[in-house]
Amino acid sequence: MDFLSTFNYYLNMPVLELIAVITALLYVIFAAKGSIWCWPMALISTLLYTAIFYDVYLWMDSVLQVYYFAMAIIGWLNWQQAKQKSSHLLPIHTMTLGFHLKAIAGLVVLGMLVGYLMATYTPTDFPFIDALTTVFAVFGTYLVVKRVLENWLYWVVIDLVSIFLYIEKDLQPTAALFVFYTGFALFGFIQWYKMYRLQNAEQLSLATNNE
């Protein structure tokens, strides 16, 4: 696309995709800041993207949005309950390298299997890439809900791969969104790491004072 055609594309962007892009971006911003408001934004964006991805034959991404919708409800409830009990959100924690290596190996095998089934039995485009990004995104969302620090590193890789996928499907606004996603994933990791260190320092101080 030249500059003029790109400008016209964004000017005439479908309203639903525009709303989906804005709310999805707000989700990442709020999540990076550890704000519970990330979940209402996720509910709106996932509902819209379910229809958008189905329409362009990215069926695994469409199914993934349904999962995101359910996890947004669960995440909202979990974070809210933790805040009501202790006046704080769920604590941020980390998992071992061994845990992540096993998870990655299992997710790759599962993604290839799902990709094979999609390539064989459905008309979906890019079945293996679509399947791999989907299974990793499912796991990454689970890590967000549980407030595992390393979730952001998964999202950096998922977002980079997704940029290629959406450009190929002529979803330029969504591809641009995922460029921002990549940056915010790095920002989110830094922010959560700071909160993780502060949280541990507070716990250490409290334990010392109680001795």
From TrEMBL:
Signal peptide: none annotated. Its main location: membrane. It is a multi-pass membrane protein. Keywords: Cell membrane, Membrane, Transmembrane, Transmembrane helix, Transport. PANTHER family: NICOTINAMIDE RIBOSIDE TRANSPORTER PNUC. Required for nicotinamide riboside transport across the inner membrane. It comes from Thalassotalea eurytherma. InterPro entries: NMN_transpt_PnuC. The chain crosses the membrane at residues 12-30, 37-57, 63-79, 99-120, 126-145, 152-168, 174-193. It holds the Pfam family NMN_transporter. It is found in: Cell membrane. NCBIfam families: NMN_trans_PnuC. This is Nicotinamide riboside transporter PnuC. Belongs to the nicotinamide ribonucleoside (NR) uptake permease (TC 4.B.1) family.
